[in-house]
Design brief:
Mean pLDDT: 88
Strand order of the largest sheet: 1-12-11-10-9
Strand content: 35-45%
Shape: globular
Structural class: mainly beta
Oligomer: single chain
Low-confidence stretches: 1-25, 161-166
Largest sheet: 5 strands, antiparallel
Distance between the termini: 30 Å
Helix content: under 10%
Radius of gyration: 20 Å
């Protein structure tokens, strides 16, 4: 395993106005004075309210199929307000490049106040940017926040740029790896990961580490960043599925790399092979002050979740939960895809993170692939099946009803969108309404996720109908 520093060509900062994916524009967003402290992730206009961001990497932009776009719905004291929204594609003024078929703009999202100006910024991956084939390409566009939201500044970086050790970004996450109080960005590529540690100063130099075979033929990459050891430095979990070339066998691997003041380690502190981790998340499930690592894993019995407790030296032995675990509603069945997406957040305000688990392939009341999400509750001994909730479109007064191929739970997040201090369940159903998609927001509370009084955001609600938006397929964590 080798490491190389590579200096990326800096792109000039350019004006970016909110324009729709080749069509509409920005609904007015009230401006706010700059806060004195850095903004929390997802608060692009610095008003103290979390904003909702949805990626549509398979959406049509400027007539180009799968060029992709991103929809931002700005937050208020009562939650996201569709009247104040923004749709950004690579056709939007100031966004570097242009919309091309299969760019996949919006494939992964991360947010932090990278320039420390009081407004959160948004990193957007275009997983097929500069691609010569389905397993190549990838790049990052960083859009800066302002008093009126995502602003007139953007820069693109992270493409492979001819470097054989980097295969372009396909996933991103933000965390303070170096412990200097400034957010860093970690990009997972096909066969490598890159740490960008000086974005606050405008430096786009990335430090790249190859992983496994270091080949672009890696077909899926998942990453998560958090402080698993409690030493003040965020660490990286990187999982990949390598397809194999020239007759070699495919491989599955799951690695954890420790952070430090100098960056991420070259070699993994923890590694496990033959684990098909399709999704990763991190949060303090047991309340001990260290982040725990959550992996959604493919199995012959419809999938499972593995929870690795954070320890002083890395991560410990995993607790395994599936739909046959005591207390977990439902039954494990082939094709459920339980664990296709995972997320963490404190739903009930007890200081411990819960885990949301998406199962987009689950049959609901005989309806195939309608999909569901399960919420697992944290406790002092970690997570168990006790008190788990199963949520679908046929539960409570969740808007609509389960339909074939809705894929409810294809992506989940646990983020506080209504400002009450408790995480809300945000479950995507990208197959809803013929592929327009929908995002279901269900409020967190002291007794768990409420299935009454939630809100639903459809492609028609957000002005992106007819563009294959697949809303809910990618959600800002």
């Amino acid at each position: 395993m080798t490491r190389r520093n590579r200096c990326l060509r800096g792109a000039a900062l350019a004006a970016v106005t909110a324009a729709a994916a080749g069509t509409a524009g920005l609904s007015a967003v009230p401006a706010h004075a700059a806060p004195k402290a850095p903004a929390r992730p997802g608060d692009f206009n610095g008003d103290g309210h979390r904003d909702l961001v949805l990626g549509s990497p398979f959406g049509t932009a400027n007539g180009a199929a799968r060029a992709g776009f991103v929809t931002v719905v700005y937050g208020t004291a009562t939650g996201p307000d569709p009247a104040h929204r923004q749709v950004i594609s690579q056709e939007s003024a100031g966004i570097p490049g242009g919309s091309e078929e299969s760019d996949g703009f919006g494939a992964s999202l991360a947010s932090a106040d990278f320039d420390l100006d009081g407004y959160a910024d948004l990193a957007v991956v275009a997983s097929g940017e500069d691609s010569n084939g389905p397993l190549e390409g990838g790049g990052i566009t960083l859009i800066y926040g302002s008093a009126s939201g995502l602003s007139s500044r953007a820069v693109r970086f992270g493409t492979d740029d001819g470097d054989a050790y980097a295969h372009g970004a396909v996933t991103v996450s933000a965390a303070d790896v170096t412990g200097d109080g400034k957010p860093d960005l970690v990009a997972g590529g096909r066969g490598s990961f890159t740490l960008y540690r000086s974005l606050a100063s405008g430096d786009l130099t990335g430090t790249t580490t190859t992983v496994g075979h270091g080949e672009g033929e890696t077909v899926q990459v998942s990453t998560a960043t958090a402080d698993f050891t409690g030493d003040g430095h965020a660490d990286l979990a990187y999982a990949y599925i390598w397809g194999g070339i020239d007759g070699q066998d495919p491989s599955l691997r799951f690695n954890v790399y420790m952070g430090s003041s100098t960056g991420l380690a070259d070699t993994a502190a923890y590694t496990s092979s033959s684990i098909a981790a399709r999704s990763l998340a991190a949060g303090d499930v047991d309340g001990d002050g260290r982040a725990d690592l959550v992996a959604g894993v493919d199995t012959d019995r419809g999938g499972q979740v593995r929870v690795y407790p954070g320890t002083a030296s890395g991560v410990g032995t995993a607790t395994v939960i599936d739909q046959d675990t005591d207390g977990v509603p439902g039954t494990a069945e082939y094709g459920d895809s339980f664990g296709a997406s995972v997320a963490t957040g404190d739903v009930n305000g007890d200081g411990r993170a819960e885990i949301a688990v998406g199962a987009p392939g689950k049959t609901v009341d005989t309806v195939a692939k309608a999909g569901a999400a399960t919420v697992l509750y944290g406790g002092p001994g970690g997570v168990t099946g006790s008190g788990a909730q199963l949520i679908s479109e046929n539960v409570g007064d969740v808007t609509g009803h389960a339909e074939e191929n809705d894929l409810f739970g294809a992506q989940v997040s646990l983020a506080d969108l209504d400002g009450d201090g408790k995480a809300d369940l945000n479950a995507g159903a990208p197959g809803e309404n013929g592929g327009g998609g929908a995002l279901y927001m269900l409020n967190g509370g002291a007794s768990g996720v409420s299935t009454t009084g939630g809100r639903t955001f459809y492609s028609s609600t957000l002005g992106v109908q007819g563009l294959d938006a697949g809303l809910g397929g990618v959600v800002l964590p």
